Queue: 2 jobs
Job 1
Amino acid sequence: MSRPGSNSWEAPVARVCPCIPGTGTRVMGDCSQAAVAGVPELLSACRGLHTSAACCKNRAARVRVGKGDKPVTYEQAHPPHYIAHRKGWLSLHTSNLDGEQGAAERTVEDVFIRKFLYGTFPGCLADEVVIKRRANQLVICMVVLQRLAPSKMYFLVGYTEALLSAFYKCPVRLCLQTLPAKQVYKYI
Amino acid sequence: MEMFQNPGLKKMIFSIQYHQPSTWEASLIEVQPVKTESNKTGKTSGKSRKQVLNPRTTKMTVDQDWMSVYPAAAPFKPSAVPLPIRMGYPVEKGVPMAKDGNLELIKIPNFLHLTPVAIKKHCGVLKDFCTEWPKALDSDEKCEKHFPIEIETSSYVSAGPSLYNPKARTVTLKIRLSKLNLNDHAKKKFIRLVGERYCKNTDLLTITTDRCPLQRQNYDYTMYLLTVLYHESWKTEDWEKKKTEADMEEYIWEKSRSEKNILKTLLQIKASEKTAEVTQEDLLCSEEVENYKKSVVALKNEGDTKNNLSHYKEAVKKLLKLI
């Protein structure tokens, strides 16, 4: 913060100011307030940092509201704070219990598996992939659209199982459920 | 409704709902609208005609074998479970989502493979691999008599491909010292050697090892420790003869200061009374001295209880003939 009267200019620090979220209130950095107060030396040398409340909004796993024509599934419609209240967990394993090892490894595996499946079944995934671990077995449950021919689907299933078993050195099972179209929960 | 008369399925009826639906849908079993029967070759004629199989629920009989539908733990399959289950938080003026494509039903673990019939069958198969408990060991005392050593080990299973858990290598050995053949000196030496691992109240020695990387090695190490302790406690080293009174675990009256003092006092009394010469052995054997000895030993070993103190008082009075 540059003191009035000093010639040096310090870069203003961005402040997170308490403000009502949702309102577009602008909060000026203190530098510009000093300028507003009319200290002549600072008017030209100071630039205020404007922060607005929109940046503080939480965007994690939330589908933004539209005109009422956007179909969303149950999974998409509920933001993360509904986990354990209206939603379950997409990935089930025991590593997150007290005293258990390997939580980080399982999480990294999960991320890879989801990306891999998203690419292997192009445009076919109706909803998120559910990953369950039973002892060392990996059970991957998917809800798939009936876009591909059954023979192609079977090939992709076998390919995925073989490749993932080779990667993770454990038995991998894919359990598919096919739907003609995505299950819409509501339109937002 | 006939579906629900199957005793195996009856216990399985559950409907996870947050709202009661307005119409009672339990009586209706929805069938997926099917366009055509499946074609084995999978050839699409002209425009893509979706060839989707009828769900298995339409082909199920009332008295089917449920174990063939769910033989092992499997995720929820709406086409194989003939129950009209709904799950989910409903929209306003709506009902929970149906079972088709319902991710919530897939996420939760289900026990559809664990009907009582299935469990009974499974146990029946496992019984062939089991042996009966020996009839001769029908009480705890007999078990302890024939098998005095108790070994405790743990193995761990966890999600993930690795078998190895660092907690799996600890081995605990438990044995009562009364089962070991130790004389007085050996027992005292043994207890000194093991220190904290011995519990006086239960007479239980507990040795826990985890210094070796494998469980097998830790087990061998505990057995080795037990053997070494046993043999060492029977040996008497030269320096053990230098055991002083301060080293004693419990108070022994023979050759103690209390004995010397009391004998000196009594001899002086006898000498002053000018009675016949009484020898030390006679003094020691007399009843009063015996009483005194018992009270002193009790005081020193057990501590100052009301009983002990009163006992000591009586003994002293009798000894010095002060009553």
Job 2
Amino acid sequence: MAATVSPTSLESAPRIMRLVAECSRSRARAGELRLPHGPVATPVFMPVGTQATMKGITAEQLDALGCRICLGNTYHLGLRPGPELIQKAHGLHGFMNWPHNLLTDSGGFQMVSLVSLSEVTEEGVRFRSPYDGDETLLSPEKSVEIQNALGSDIIMQLDDVVSSTVTGPRVEEAMYRSIRWLDRCIAAHQRPDKQNLFAIIQGGLDADLRTTCLEEMTKRDVPGFAIGGLSGGESKGQFWRMVALSTSRLPKDKPRYLMGVGYATDLVVCVALGCDMFDCVFPTRTARFGSALVPTGNLQLKKKQYEKDFRPIDNDCACPTCQKHSRAFLHALLHSDNTAALHHLTVHNIAYQLQLMSAVRASIVEKRFPDFVRDFMGTMYGDPTLCPTWATEALASVGITLS
Amino acid sequence: MKLSLTKVVNGCRLGKIKNLGKAGDRTMDIPSCLLYTKTGSAPHLTHQTLHTIHGLPAMAQLTLSSLAEHHEALAEYKEGIGKFIGMPELLLYCSLHDPVSPCPAGYVTNKSVSVWGLGGRVEMTASKFMAIQQALQPDWFQCLSDGEVNCEEATSIKRARKSVDRSLLFLDNCLRLQEESEVLRRSAIIGVIEGGDVMEERLRSARETAKRPVGGFLLDGFQGNPATQETRLHLLSSVTAELPEDKPRLICGVSRPDEVLECIERGVDLFESFFPYQVTERGCALTFSFDYQPNPEETLLQQNGIQEEIKYVDQTKKIKTTSCNQEMTSFEINLKEKKYQEDFDPLVRGCSCYCCKNHTRAYIHHLLVTNELLAGVLLMMHNFEHYFGFFHSIREALKSDRLAQLKELIRRQAS
């Protein structure tokens, strides 16, 4: 195992994570999160259901796929339908009738994605609503207040997010502000017994800034840490180094949530680097464009080559789409105006992600994670030497060689 | 197949069609509706979500307009459309057109009929048509026919006559081609009654079609606006009187609850279920009652409820899909209305569908306002279940001689 020093946690926050197994070579861990709405096996991929819905699939379908935690978004839900209504509906769980766990983002990311509509000050983020032009101020206190009303099992601090392609003093400003905002979120949090507030490590692509952020934030009394500010436009080389730096300085006995990561290769590598939780819109979004995820990449099912392909998307996939339908049928359906086509692919892509994480976890528990990684890369890239350089380097840094 | 009537009450036929399907072991009740599909799939629904619906019909309607462009793939597949679409358990009827999207007129010739898919026009001679049906292998299919004349427009007798002549010619051609193919012999051809609004042509069509060895009859061109309703219904009665009792009568383009009852009273057995789909596409949920024997308290509550519902057409939201520009009816509520924002009741109290058992009006309202795909999924599940429940109640009412009550209940809610 790569030499690291993980600081022992200095606080008495409840430990929501139980480690079940650790890879003896890399930093990969298998564990179990104990959350108010039930246990969650890690490493885990969390599908994103931004507006209190998983994009055309029902809660029952999502449950049947084995999903035990998914995401909702504070910025969107705060505007529509609003926290008061959701509170009347018995929280987000009650509103969307989801029996398992929910994680809500703070609204911070929208600062980057909707940058033309937002303005950041020490107070918070001022947004102009795209729907009615109204201005809202999303402060750390406001974000926590909304998330308290939503009642999600894991809530995120409001962080000052800058795009990873930004350089200069703004990055440092955002990092220090995120620490101050973390403290304000902790102070404002009304329900620490029911909702777990995670900190989000910032610092961009600057190792010193990130290290400072890690040192400071790990002094705070929080049940978990997210690695933020990545998965934007940065190079993969910079990306993995920041992830590795972060995991080397995060406590072992608390979950590490890498935000916005969802491509299969990235998931496998970042598990090796010591991350436990992931979220990404990619699998569900790409489904709605007719793209099905498979161990060798993806199938663009709208293309003519699938017109007479009577095989399922993936022979080894246990999802309802693959059990019942062929690529040819999905191809025909994708060329129609029946939305069912999108739902078939959404089901499959979520299944793919969850099955991948399950397989990763099993390999860690059974002490064969490095072999799993080699098999995975072999299938995905055909040959270990064709694996992207950054991934090869990242894996090597934690003791996994591909050839 | 064998149609046996249990009883006939005031022109309404109650019965069963037995020995259906490739193995001859399936049964279908009449009167009944067929599951509406688009490109071989219930709208918005995967196999999983479709099968949470209670009371699914035994037979689904496929449309040639959505499938014709895929016939090459189907021919290579060889195993038939039922397996291809993942519905091997349902009986399948293939109609020419999609009742929701009308097709442009002027494309029927003496030799061919065209259907309009999303990829464009597919022109079919009798041979091509039968070749496509050979690839599809449905249980029943509507014969190639000239359906451009319907009762709406004042038809010239000449045009009406041509529609009957052409359709009979197509029918004879298709029957001949069917004789030559073992695969095609396993499907039943449904003869199509044409003739516009010209009585003598309608009667001729009915009598002549009935002479052929068809599996059943499709009453075409009887859809239209309320203005011409009486004429249409009169024509309909006259036509069904000419048809043999032991073969099913299907009608296309009629799906509204009140119109369904009128047609059942005039000897129609099977209907399309596109109405719940149209309701879904305008963000509405079916709420009309078909409980013709409620307890008196319930009746009072229901009546008050019905009076309170304000009918209006939602003009602010554009309907996304083709041809759902129908106006909202009084059989439904519009979930986009602001008053549902905080309504935590299910769509219909007492409904056993997945949506009503798991979600609230407020949630559906939110999904519609935020343009989320799940809105269509949940509304479709509810609207289909509600509609199938309506058909169940028709059969029950016929069984217990209470159709008059049901009819009155529906009439009170229609307008």
